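Incident log, support desk, overnight shift.

02:14 A customer reports that sequence design results differ from what the structure should imply. Their input is reproduced verbatim below. On-call engineer (initials T.W.) acknowledged and began investigating.
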């Protein structure tokens, strides 16, 4: 695996893997070539083991976190937040037993949280929020002791300390659509009932008074009589008018 400086404005590093064959077995030496204050510095295995803190947050790093990170066993703080890292969290991340601070938030990491993470007893700060991590949070006192905000905005993540429960390792599905349909049905029935009651009350409020009060009843029938007479006269006039036009 390699990453190297391409221009003066770009600082990067090489990982050299030197192999030596010995009776069918292979040995590996990890070296890092770093640009530091304009000069190249080579660090071997011993030098890398002294590295205590890495902060590469708020950059544009992409692809996966390299598995070789396990060689930085002296690391105390690792911050790779606010990048574009994808794929899984390295399954061997639990080998960083000295880790006290781990922030991988606001990336695009997927799949489940490695169970090896429970082996880091010294971990006091953890942030995996705003990723696409899924499945059940590994059962372990260390991971359950963190606040739920450390895991927020991972829709398919479940288990303590999150309120979303797991069923066979998968998040419980909330019956959102069913609740909405039930609520809609209740609302429709409620308004239909209110409308029916309103119609009945209005009908008997008006016609009840017509039946009970003589003056209202007389006025109502006079209104109907006048209305029928008016309709009759209008109809007769129109028929007479059409008859005259046809005779011409």
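02:41 Re-run completed on a clean worker. Output:
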């Amino acid at each position: 695996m390699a990453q190297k400086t391409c221009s003066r404005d770009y600082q990067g590093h090489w990982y050299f893997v030197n192999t030596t064959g010995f009776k069918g077995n292979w040995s590996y030496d990890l070296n890092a070539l770093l640009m530091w204050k304009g000069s190249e510095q080579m660090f071997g295995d011993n030098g890398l083991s002294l590295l205590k803190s890495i902060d590469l947050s708020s950059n544009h790093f992409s692809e996966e976190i390299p598995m070789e990170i396990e060689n930085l066993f002296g690391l105390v703080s690792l911050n790779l937040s606010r990048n574009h890292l994808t794929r899984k969290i390295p399954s061997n991340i639990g080998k960083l037993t000295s880790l006290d601070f781990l922030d991988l938030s606001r990336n695009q990491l997927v799949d489940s949280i490695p169970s090896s993470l429970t082996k880091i007893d010294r971990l006091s700060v953890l942030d995996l929020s705003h990723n696409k991590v899924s499945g059940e949070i590994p059962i372990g006192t260390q991971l359950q002791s963190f606040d739920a905000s450390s895991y927020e905005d991972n829709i398919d993540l479940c288990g303590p300390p999150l309120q979303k429960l797991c069923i066979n390792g998968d998040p419980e599905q909330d019956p959102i659509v069913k609740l909405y349909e039930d609520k809609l049905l209740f609302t429709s029935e409620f308004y239909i009932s209110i409308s029916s009651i309103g119609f009945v009350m209005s009908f008997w409020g008006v016609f009840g008074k017509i039946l009970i009060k003589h003056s209202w009843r007389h006025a109502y029938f006079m209104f109907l009589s006048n209305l029928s007479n008016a309709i009759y006269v209008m109809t007769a006039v129109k028929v007479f008018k059409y008859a005259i036009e046809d005779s011409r």
